[in-house]
Amino acid sequence: MTKKYCLTLLLLLTLNAPAVYADTHAQAQAVDPQLRQLLVQAINSSDSFDDRFHAEVWLMDMSNRLQRFVKDEKTRLDMLRNIHREATRAGLQPELVLALIEVESHFDPYAISKSGAQGIMQIMPFWLDEIGRPEDNLIDMKTNLRMGCTILKYYMEMENNDLHRALARYNGSRGSKVYSNKVLTALRNHWYQS
Fold it and tell me: C-alpha 27: how far from its chain's center?
């Protein structure tokens, strides 16, 4: 990264900081305490594949599908293991999480949105303070997936498994189906196992 690029990025972040802070601070004030507790519990637990055969079949199939987004095979497999682990731990379909990530970040673990959401599942930084872990890094894939899957599962339960409503909550676009339709289209076209 060039020095000029870094300075330009720093200047842009500094200029946008007041607006992002105000939006993030407003969201932090309305945090659901039950969701905060679920995130704390999620950060402190872990799981992985139970069946080696299932793992190999799923990983190979999904690796072929993910190749258009992530070229390096080792990176793809590591990403898929983590996605499967965190989705399964949260009680979500890993394919749904893959579709959400496709729409949110196109599998870029370093993605940062204009509103300040970070990482592969685009988590807002205020959550780190809310759960008492301000030192955690949302660019870290494991942390990001753990929090994103926990949040999505919470919204799924809150909305009685209505995918449109849960996905709209996740995206902050309640009342609209534009975002949820994008995720469901990605699920159907790229990740759904027939």
Answer: 18
Would you call 117 helix, strand, or coil by DSSP?
A: coil
* Cα–Cα distance, 59 to 57 (Å, whole number): 6
Report CA Rg, the chain.
17
- Residue 2's Cβ-count burial label (10 Å; 0-12, 13-18, 19+) is exposed
In the numeric block, the tokens 């870094």 are attached to 6
pLDDT digits (tens, 9 = 90+) for 33-75: 766 565 555 445 444 566 677 777 888 899 999 999 999 988 9
- Beta-carbon contacts of residue 149 (< 8 Å; ≥ 6 apart): 42, 86, 87, 89, 90, 92, 97, 121
Structure-block tokens of residue 21: 């802070």
Return the number of other C-beta atoms located less than 10 Å from residue 58's C-beta.
18
Compute the mean pLDDT over every residue in the chain, rounded to the nearest whole number: 81
